[in-house]
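User: Design a sequence. Structure:
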């Protein structure tokens, strides 16, 4: 079985595998759980999830099944989850982290992220749910909760032993600059959308300067980018005798970016992992970098009316 590399996190605690399985999908019951089992049995050791995805109990059942088989242990897995926007209030952070851990059936998280730098009002006065209050236009109501308040509670999760490392997701440079002015624990990771039409070169440069690792979600553009008909990608894929998807994952990893493609297709899950037997040249990498068009396929403007990236 091919062995993958890991990137060391800035807190010196963990090492994150450079390829993981994303779990934001699953139209049929059991699809995500089955994907997790297939991934783990075929070399993956990094699973990326979130409370908002609504499938952590299903994933927990799969983890239990895999662990019971005896070949893979909890400590072999790097598990990532995320705090949803309705749970940013100081009184809710630990509660929802513990709920995620309970649903997964594990004792701790390897990495816990703030999902978005936006807080929503929780529809439940006690914050039990992740559902947001909506305004007359159907958008979530923004809550008066600062990232500072939330981050300070995230730091306490490390003290409590509930999580090993903490980080953020969908943070732009301005969000990070502010966070770094008060963070006692620097974010280990910033998980953002990265693909050939959204290369995030400047964001990565900033994060590197502050020793923050990037993780790329939607590395294939969330199915909204026509990479298959791109001449440059086709040329590079042909040269290496690899699918375009594998070329994209390799481009990200050689740039020092963790990659978490998602799929419910067993053969695709296995194929996606086969990126450890070839290398792209610097010219290949520069050609892919040149494709940047700043196209976001996942935007806060769409789901909450907030132009975070605009």
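Assistant: Done.
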């Amino acid at each position: 079985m091919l062995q993958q590399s890991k990137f060391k996190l800035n807190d010196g605690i963990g090492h994150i595998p450079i390829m993981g399985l994303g779990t934001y999908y699953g139209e049929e019951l059991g699809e995500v759980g089955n994907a997790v089992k297939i991934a783990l049995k075929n070399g993956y050791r990094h699973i990326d999830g979130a409370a908002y995805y609504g499938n952590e109990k299903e994933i927990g059942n799969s983890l239990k099944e895999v662990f019971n088989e005896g070949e893979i242990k909890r400590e072999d897995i790097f598990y990532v989850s995320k705090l949803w926007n309705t749970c940013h209030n100081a009184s809710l952070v630990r509660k929802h982290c513990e709920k995620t851990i309970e649903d997964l059936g594990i004792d701790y998280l390897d990495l816990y992220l703030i999902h978005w730098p936006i807080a929503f009002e929780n529809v439940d006065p006690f914050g039990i749910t992740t559902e947001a209050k909506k305004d007359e236009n159907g958008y979530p109501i923004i809550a008066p909760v600062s990232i500072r308040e939330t981050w300070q509670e995230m730091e306490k999760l490390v003290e409590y032993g509930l999580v090993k490392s903490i980080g953020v997701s969908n943070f732009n440079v301005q969000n990070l600059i502010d966070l770094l002015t008060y963070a006692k624990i620097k974010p280990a990771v910033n998980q953002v959308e990265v693909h050939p039409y959204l290369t995030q070169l400047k964001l990565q440069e900033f994060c590197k300067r502050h020793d923050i690792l990037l993780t790329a979600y939607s590395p294939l553009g969330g199915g909204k980018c026509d990479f298959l008909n791109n001449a440059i990608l086709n040329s590079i894929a042909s040269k290496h005798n690899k699918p375009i998807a594998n070329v994209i994952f390799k481009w990200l990893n050689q740039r020092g970016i963790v990659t978490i493609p998602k799929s419910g297709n067993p053969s695709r899950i296995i194929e996606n992992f086969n990126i450890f037997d070839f290398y792209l040249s610097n010219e290949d990498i520069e050609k892919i970098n040149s494709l940047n068009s700043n196209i976001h396929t996942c935007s806060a403007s769409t789901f909450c009316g907030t132009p975070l990236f605009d």
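The chain is about 35% helix and 15% strand. The mean pLDDT is 95.
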